[in-house]
Design a protein that fits this description.
Shape: rod-shaped
Pfam family, one: V-set
Oligomer: single chain
Strand content: over 45%
CATH class of the largest domain: Mainly Beta
CATH superfamily of the largest domain: Immunoglobulins
Membrane topology: Single-pass membrane protein
Number of strands: 15
Order of helices and strands: EEEEEEEEEEEEEEE
CATH topology of the largest domain: Immunoglobulin-like
Family: Belongs to the CD200R family.
Number of domains: 2
InterPro entries: CD200R (IPR040012), CD80_C2-set (IPR013162), Ig-like_dom (IPR007110), Ig-like_dom_sf (IPR036179), Ig-like_fold (IPR013783), Ig_V-set (IPR013106)
Organism: Centropus unirufus
Number of helices: 0
Distance between the termini: 34 Å
Length: 176
């Protein structure tokens, strides 16, 4: 999320037309087309963040400027040429890195939260804890995972929360 996505589509020397068909979870079908004989482009029902990376007569690459959760979906490029069509499909999955929040509750127990990540993050503790993480789903597809540190012994002073996620791992330590 927030980064640029670049999707390539191979051109053929005898290309007459190319169509990008974009079907996202939000917003319905978007189509972008280019006709070589007229050197003309057309864009229907597409967001401003989705466009050709360069001129389509030189490069058929699609670019999404600031990728958001709503951009998740299927992106199909169809190149029409005199000797046959070429079809390439991408399935875009958007990762949202969680925000790590580490605090102490009213009883002096460390609480770790991996807030609004996609997919859900994994939480572990050093030293090890036998706590069970809780997940809360949000309307935008993100998930908040929380875990309260439960000590095996009473002599633990410094606890470290480790958040594992495909968009990157994080850790923080706390003394409660």
């Amino acid at each position: 999320v927030g980064n640029r996505a670049v999707l390539t589509c191979s051109s053929k020397s005898n290309m007459t037309m190319v169509i990008w068909k974009i079907s996202t979870k939000v917003g319905g079908l978007c189509t972008m087309g280019y006709r070589a004989d007229l050197n003309k482009t057309d864009k229907i029902n597409c967001s401003d963040s989705v466009d050709w990376k360069f001129r389509p007569d030189q490069d058929l690459t699609l670019e999404i400027q600031q990728v958001g959760i709503a951009d998740e979906g299927n992106y199909t490029c169809e190149v029409v040429a005199t000797d046959g069509n070429l079809i390439k499909t991408y399935h875009l999955i958007v990762l949202v890195p969680p925000r790590l929040i580490l605090s102490c509750d009213d009883h002096g127990n460390p609480v770790c939260e991996a807030a609004t990540g996609k997919p859900a993050a994994q939480i572990s503790w050093v030293p090890e804890s036998n706590s069970t993480p809780k997940e809360e789903g949000h309307d935008n597809g993100t998930v908040t995972v929380s875990s309260k540190f439960t000590a095996h012994g009473t002599d633990v002073i410094n606890m470290t929360c480790i958040v594992s996620h495909p968009a990157g791992n994080q850790s923080k330590s706390i003394v409660c």
